[in-house]
Every structure is written in structure tokens, then in C-alpha cells.
């Protein structure tokens, strides 16, 4: 059974930092693009960041560019999202996701991902 499990969310003040982790099990994702999405209350889920299977290139939504960094450790079958200079508008449930196919390029559409985690809540207070 394939599972993606996010962790690292929490409550932080504006300007603070959090590091999200996503641990995969059930199959290796070392040759898969990985992505992070988020969904704020009452809004649609939106793309945040994506990383190629090799770790390069990466791609970010304009709203997080320069503040967030996506990375991966293929040996650990894990992907991370370092979030700095957090703003109240970053408050959302954050999801990691992966497509089922290998060696794909950067993906930014929800429908391009087949596996999803359960999400981790990030709350940024002003």
C-alpha cells in the first residue's frame, strides 16, 4: 500500500519558519517528480512547489518564490518543504503528492499527481 505521510506543520508567528517533511512508503519515489500543494479554508487546493526526480530543476508558485525551498532525499524516499518568512496568507493544509510515472518533468497540475498524503496544518498568526 502506497502512503505519503506529511509532518512538521504547526502554529508559527508571521516571519517564522517551518520545515515540512513527507515520508513515502509502499514503493520508491526516487525516480518520480514530487510536489507540494496547499488548501486554505474555503478555497481550492493550489500548487506550491515541485521538484524533479533528480532534485533539479525545481519550480515554485509565485506566491512562495524566494521564501520556500523544496528538496528531496531519495535514499530516504522523502521530500521536504522549508518555509521561511511565513505570512498569515500561508495558512493552509499542506499536502505532498507524487505521480505514478517515473522520470517525468516538473508537474504543477493537481490532475498530474496520483498519490496524495493526508495533509498537515500550517497556521501563521499575525
Please describe what this structure looks like.
It is a single chain. This protein has no helices and eleven strands. It starts with a strand and ends with a strand. A hairpin with a 6-residue loop joins strand 5 (46-51) and strand 6 (58-60). It has 126 residues and is mainly beta. The strands form two sheets. Strands 2, 4, 5, 6, 9, 10 and 11 form a seven-stranded mixed sheet that branches. A four-stranded antiparallel sheet has the order 1-3-8-7, with no helix packed on it.
Task: Give the topology.
Elements: E1 3-7, E2 10-13, E3 18-25, E4 34-39, E5 46-51, E6 58-60, E7 68-73, E8 78-83, E9 92-98, E10 115-116, E11 120-125
Parallel strand pairs: 2-11
Antiparallel strand pairs: 1-3, 3-8, 4-5, 4-9, 5-6, 7-8, 9-10, 9-11
Entry summary:
This protein has strands at residues 3-7, 10-13, 18-25, 34-39, 46-51, 58-60, 68-73, 78-83, 92-98, 115-116, 120-125. The protein is an all-beta fold. Strands 2, 4, 5, 6, 9, 10 and 11 form a seven-stranded mixed beta sheet that branches.
Number of strands: 11
What's the Cα radius of gyration? 13 Å
Helical content stands at under 10%
The span between the termini is: 40 Å
Percentage of β-strand residues = over 45%
Q: Whole-number average pLDDT?
A: 96
Taken in chain order, the helices and strands follow as EEEEEEEEEEE
Q: Main sheet?
A: 7 strands, mixed
Number of helices: 0
Low-confidence stretches: none
The quaternary organization reads as single chain
Instruction: Please state the structural category.
Output: mainly beta
Shape: globular
Amino acid at each position: 500500500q502506497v502512503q505519503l505521510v506529511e509532518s512538521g506543520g504547526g502554529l508559527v508567528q508571521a516571519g517564522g519558519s517551518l520545515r515540512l517533511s513527507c515520508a513515502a512508503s509502499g514503493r520508491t519515489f526516487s525516480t518520480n517528480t514530487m510536489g507540494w500543494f496547499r488548501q486554505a479554508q474555503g478555497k481550492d487546493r493550489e500548487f506550491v512547489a515541485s521538484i524533479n526526480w533528480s532534485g533539479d530543476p525545481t519550480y515554485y508558485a509565485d506566491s512562495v518564490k524566494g521564501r520556500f525551498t523544496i528538496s528531496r532525499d531519495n535514499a530516504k524516499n522523502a521530500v521536504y518543504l522549508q518555509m521561511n518568512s511565513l505570512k498569515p496568507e500561508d495558512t493552509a493544509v499542506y499536502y505532498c503528492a507524487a505521480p505514478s510515472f517515473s522520470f517525468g518533468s516538473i508537474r504543477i497540475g493537481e490532475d498530474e499527481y496520483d498519490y496524495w498524503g493526508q495533509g498537515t496544518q500550517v497556521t501563521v498568526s499575525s
